[in-house]
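Dear Dr. H.,

I hope your travels went smoothly. While you were away I took the liberty of generating a structure for the chain from your last submission, since the lab meeting agenda had it listed for discussion. I wanted you to have the full record in hand beforehand rather than looking at slides cold. The sequence, exactly as received, is reproduced here:
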Amino acid sequence: MNFLLSLDRGWWEATEDDAREFQFWRVTDPRNPQRVQRSSFYRDAAGLKTFHRWVGGRYQVVNPFEELETSRGRKQEDVKWLDPDGYARWRDLGLRGLDLDGREDAAWGGRNEQRDGAFADGLYGTGLRLSEWANVVLPELPEETRGRGYYTCALADACAKGGYGHTYWMPRAVLSGVLPYMEGSRARAVRRAQVAGRYERVAERQVVVGTEGRRAVTLESEDGERETTAWNDLAPPARKLLFRRTRQGLEPLALWLNEDGCPGTGTAGITRSRPRTSGSPRWALRTSAVHRTCFGTRWR
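The corresponding predicted structure, in token form, is as follows:
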């Protein structure tokens, strides 16, 4: 619409020449700083073609996209996925520092295998996007219950893609991997940070002083002011500033912490692979999209 307005033309007056010019501007024109890939343009053009077919049959409007090829909008990339055994092998080799026989590899140089393994299992088990799983906080984790295979969880709107939170299900195996991480490497990182007084130096930190289940939380700022807000409305930047008081001192509510005990994304081991895994699917380390594809195959 904006393109046609720049030509001083209404959408019902568009011609085939306009459609071709629009394609050039969206995909090729160097004067356009927001050019898109051809596949993206063809998907949009297919929708415009369908719209004009519908409106044309009712109001005799010419379809300027009728002769424009849009079939190439279909993605031709080779979609990669792993079955459960393949994923477990990749995780053990690439993130946990094990060899092909399941023993600790003397050549392993990683330092966060417990965190990274639990993080990857969460992506694979829940189907969440990387940024969504990275911003889950401790109070949003389910309580471990004997005999349950899955736990019903809620993703906050403020952390979800497009701002649309949703229900998701966490397998028991995922929670069983997260809990040892919390009691192991995460707890050690928190204790080191407490001894160093690192958390007291965090500017604009908010301390949790009360909760209403998983619905709302009352926060206290450094100057003593209190405010109650819904967990659902807490965006990722705000979540990284949340703390709770313990007998040992302040502790972050963020689940995924760096070695210094400060909130991070928990993705360091997911975004790069070690050299000796070159024979295994290194592409799986690049993005959570592969984890989500693998997650989908588990339910087919």
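Two observations you may find useful: The longest strand covers residues 206-212. The mean pLDDT is 83.

With kind regards,
E. W.
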